[in-house]
Amino acid sequence: MLVGLLVTLPIVAVAGPPSDIGSADLGWLAVVGITNSVGLLLAYRALRVGKVGLVAPVVSTEGAIAALLAVATGEGIAPGAAAVLTLIVAGVCLAAFSPDSAGVAAGRASRRGMAYAIAAACSFGLTLYATAKAGNSLPVAWVLVPARLVGVLVFALPLAGLGRLQLTRASLPLVVATGICEVLGVVSYTLGARHGIAITSVLASQFATISVVAAYFAFRERLAGVQVLGVAATVIGVGALSAIQG
Fold first, then answer.
1. How far apart are the C-alpha atoms of 25 and 29, rounded to whole Å?
2. Burial 226-237 (b: 16+ CB within 10 A, else e)
3. For residue 156, what are the domain limits?
4. What is the pTM of this model?
């Protein structure tokens, strides 16, 4: 959040204040700030106690959640999308509740990771929807502000005050890259969502495919057969939803 805010402030300065901002816009910005920060905490906790190959696909259902919210509020959705969403939910259940082949303790950790991942997906789904709504009437630069500002004020500054905001040399480039990439991702998503929230949301959730492949090569993660089935159903479902909406 500190890195993201440092990147965002010059963009906001160049963009200047929005010409017109209403109470609804402020409400959406507040939702973005709260749900994004909570979602990140849940997602990072999920990654700490669970497997990347399981957590990433589950968190990626944020796109399907945002799409459902868009459809529920009147945005059109292509025929067959409901069936694909059911496939995604089934995949999440298989990945979340199947036994872990590494033992009981690992299985409990995996279930905790899935619980955090599901909660993060719900929070991020709200973030995506609120970001799209705010981005429809506000400059993209101002849509970037809430999440990073809340993250700094609510989490970074209190941790710094307690002397617990620590950064290792090894993690520094990863933290910087994450902050910059998140800002770029929000900008891209906000611009895309102006043409349709549902399709942009599910396309944005394709990060799961990259994460699963990266986890296989970087961490040598291995999954039980039924978990592989669940992950595959989730990833394929998200991809199929993107194709149907396209």
1. 6
2. ebbbbbbbbbbb
3. 21-245
4. 0.81
Q: For residue 16, tell me if it sits in a domain.
A: no
Percent over 90 (pLDDT), the chain:
46
225 three-state secondary structure = helix
Helices (H), the chain: 2-15, 23-49, 52-59, 62-72, 81-97, 104-135, 140-150, 157-161, 172-193, 197-204, 207-219, 225-245
Q: Give the model's pLDDT for residue 100.
A: 47
Count of domains in the chain? 1
Residue 245: what pLDDT?
62
110 belongs to a structural domain: yes
With H, G, I as helix, E, B as strand and everything else as coil, classify residue 243: helix
Phi-psi region at 195: left, alpha or beta (left = phi > 0; alpha = psi -120 to 50) = alpha
In a domain, 11, yes or no: no
Residue 82 lies in a domain: yes
Q: Helix 52-59 to helix 81-97 angle, to the nearest 10 degrees?
A: 150
3-state secondary structure 159-205: HHHCCCCCCCCCCHHHHHHHHHHHHHHHHHHHHHHCCCHHHHHHHHC
